[in-house]
Amino acid sequence: MRSKARLALSVAALFLCFTGASPARSQTQDAASPKTATTPSAEVPPHSYRLDYTLTESEGGKKIDSRQYSIETGGGTNNGRQWSSYVNIGTRVPVGSKGDGSYQYIDVGIKLRCSISPRDGAQVLDTGFTLSSVAPDATNVDGRPILRELEIGNQTPIETGKVTLVGTADDPNSGRKFVLEVTVTEIK
Q: I need a labelling partner for 5 at 20 to 30 A (CA). Which of 19, 145, 147, 150 fits?
């Protein structure tokens, strides 16, 4: 029994020697140095949200068009995907033929991608928006369509119930202005 107690004391003494800690030293340091509490930032629990996006198009200060897109998404992990929710609306347009006679196509229209994730104690909305279109027939060259594209991306903390600006862009080809906004509503 005594040999087990000696062995335990010897192991404890070796441990203290190798770690450089001593009971007296640690008590002195604790009393002399002010305690700084470092708490990890609290993660925000995941929620579900409805995201109401509005794309407004204007020219010369006059509203020409307004389009709405709604999507539901959740916070937290994206299960390994870059975007947790998305909407694609458009048309596949032939842009040329391959050497074997088959056609190549691209998607033209709206692509809205979004995800919500906790960051620095807040929920952050990550939005990727692409609007592409075929230019009018008069501008086509050799029968191939000329494509125009508007892309807006942003990361912003969520403010539920408020209209939040995602981004604006002026189209240098047409003189039109595009404004993308989102309203976030928590689903309970």
A: 19
Q: Strand 176-187 vs strand 163-170: parallel, antiparallel, or unpaired?
A: antiparallel
Q: How far is CA 81 from CA 43, 45, 84, in A?
A: 20, 19, 6
Answering whether pTM is above 0.85, one says no
Separation between Cα atoms, residue 166 and residue 56, nearest integer Å: 12
Whether 85 contacts 125, CB under 8 Å: no
Contact (Cβ atoms closer than 8 angstroms) between residue 131 and residue 148: no
Rounded distance between C-alpha atoms, residue 60 and residue 81, angstroms = 40
The H-assigned helical ranges of the chain are 2-19, 23-32
3-state helix, strand, coil in the chain (%, to 5): 15, 55, 30
Q: In whole angstroms, give the CA distance from residue 62 to residue 56.
A: 10
- The two three-digit tokens of residue 44, written as one number: 């925000």
Q: From CA 4, how far away is CA 96, in angstroms rounded?
A: 85
- What are the tens digits of pLDDT across the range 94-129? 877 777 778 888 899 999 999 888 888 888 899 999
